[in-house]
């Protein structure tokens, strides 16, 4: 969010800010009092000693008043407090420079509002907390901005999903003449505290899992540049499908695809990195886990008559991880393998095939499998139990990566 670094609020832009349009201000020139029980203020009770008085000349009188009082109440319910501060006032009250405050707001994805009175006690507290982490030496300024950006991007997508998918299905007016706002308010009043607690719970569980991976890493470099199995799963013929399906049907198909993939990836020990509509990107710490996920995806979608065919490409190697995403040649190779994979099939690179052989999940060749079985029989032991089979394919040039030799991954018959 870019803001005007001045004390005057006379030049409000009236732009959007998370929470909706800017409501009107107190015509007397004073800032409206925050609710004493505001949950957005941190402790639930406003500390007046921490809040500077708002001078008359800093109040924005140009913001368009919102005509729907119920919409204002809904916004106040979600934000937990009344809009009270201009950006300049919020930064000053938090004891943060306008430059740093602006960088935090931009990173969180907040729109330019000029000097409209649009911020609450919670906005001031958030600035104090981030700046306090920097002052205490716990975070550098660039890292604090990254924290703001990653949190903003993640929660923005979550909020959009909840509004578009969840609330939309719940807020159909039950009676003629009722507005969606009238139906939404009591639902939000009931759901907000529960969803807020659930969000924190899931975040803590994910944080615990991520921390466990840090503890297992040999050193800091391994956490940034790690050896992972990376896979793409792509719906075949999706572009043609979009031309003949209605928007609602297409949305339902994409949602079913993403849900199926997310469930299977999580159930078998992988991590869903991101979804791209007709494609998902996943990662796993070992090749055997990634192979199992890929085969489960192919098998599950092949048995679903409503789904198009699927193809999967996987590679194994060094991957750079940053802000929850993965980058590097290994990722690019997995994407290219997906694009050349036959439908209902999994292609892997040579490094992945070698890793499966090293861990005993697949023989490098059927001749090797036969030799191992014969040796085990001679010793009176059980033959090796391989989960997967690998078949070398023709070498072919791959754009940007030279000539590669794909391997076809299948399940090995019991």
From TrEMBL:
InterPro entries: A/G_cyclase, Ad_Cy_reg, Adenylyl/Guanylyl_Cyclase_3/4, Nucleotide_cyclase. Gene3D superfamilies: Nucleotide cyclase. GO terms for biological process: cAMP biosynthetic process; intracellular signal transduction. Residues 1-15 have a biased composition (Low complexity). Residues 229-338 form the Guanylate cyclase domain. Pfam families: Ad_Cy_reg (PF16701), Guanylate_cyc (PF00211). GO terms for molecular function: adenylate cyclase activity. Residues 1-68 are annotated as: Disordered. Residues 47-67 have a biased composition (Basic and acidic residues). Belongs to the adenylyl cyclase class-3 family. This is Adenylate/guanylate cyclase domain-containing protein. It comes from Streptomyces tirandamycinicus. The lineage of its organism: Bacteria, Bacillati, Actinomycetota, Actinomycetes, Kitasatosporales.
């Amino acid at each position: 969010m870019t803001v005007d670094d001045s004390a005057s609020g006379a030049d409000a832009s009236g732009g959007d800010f998370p929470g909706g349009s800017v409501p009107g201000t107190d015509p007397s020139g004073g800032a409206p009092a925050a609710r004493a029980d505001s949950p957005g203020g941190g402790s639930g009770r406003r500390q007046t000693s921490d809040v500077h008085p708002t001078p008359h000349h800093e109040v924005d009188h140009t913001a368009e008043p919102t005509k729907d009082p119920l919409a204002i109440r809904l916004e106040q319910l979600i934000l937990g407090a009344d809009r009270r501060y201009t950006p300049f006032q919020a930064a000053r009250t938090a004891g943060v420079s306008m430059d740093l405050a602006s960088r935090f707001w931009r990173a969180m994805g907040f729109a330019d509002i000029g000097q409209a009175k649009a911020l609450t006690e919670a906005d001031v507290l958030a600035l104090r907390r981030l700046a306090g982490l920097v002052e205490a030496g716990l975070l550098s300024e660039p890292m604090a901005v990254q924290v703001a950006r990653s949190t903003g991007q993640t929660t923005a997508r979550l909020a959009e999903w909840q509004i578009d998918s969840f609330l939309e299905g719940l807020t159909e007016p039950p009676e003629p003449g009722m507005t969606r706002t009238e139906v939404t308010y009591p639902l939000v009043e009931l759901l907000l505290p529960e969803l807020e607690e659930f969000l924190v719970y899931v975040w803590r569980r994910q944080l615990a899992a991520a921390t466990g991976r840090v503890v297992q890493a040999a050193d800091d470099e391994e956490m940034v540049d790690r050896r992972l199995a990376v896979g793409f799963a792509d719906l075949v013929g999706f572009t043609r499908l979009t031309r003949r399906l209605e928007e609602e049907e297409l949305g339902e198909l994409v949602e079913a695809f993403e849900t199926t993939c997310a469930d299977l990836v999580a159930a078998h020990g992988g991590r869903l990195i991101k979804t791209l509509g007709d494609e998902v990107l996943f990662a796993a710490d070992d090749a055997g886990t990634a192979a199992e996920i890929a085969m489960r995806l192919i098998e599950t979608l092949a048995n679903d008559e409503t789904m198009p065919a699927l193809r999967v490409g996987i590679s194994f190697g060094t991957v750079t991880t940053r802000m929850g995403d993965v980058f590097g040649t290994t990722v690019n190779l997995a994407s290219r393998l997906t694009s050349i994979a036959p439908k209902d099939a999994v292609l892997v690179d040579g490094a992945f095939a070698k890793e499966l052989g090293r861990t005993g999940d697949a023989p490098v060749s059927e001749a090797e499998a036969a030799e191992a079985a014969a040796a085990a029989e001679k010793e009176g032991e059980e033959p090796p139990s391989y989960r997967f089979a690998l078949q070398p394919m023709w070498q072919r040039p791959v754009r940007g990566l030279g000539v590669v030799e794909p391997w076809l991954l299948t399940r090995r018959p019991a």
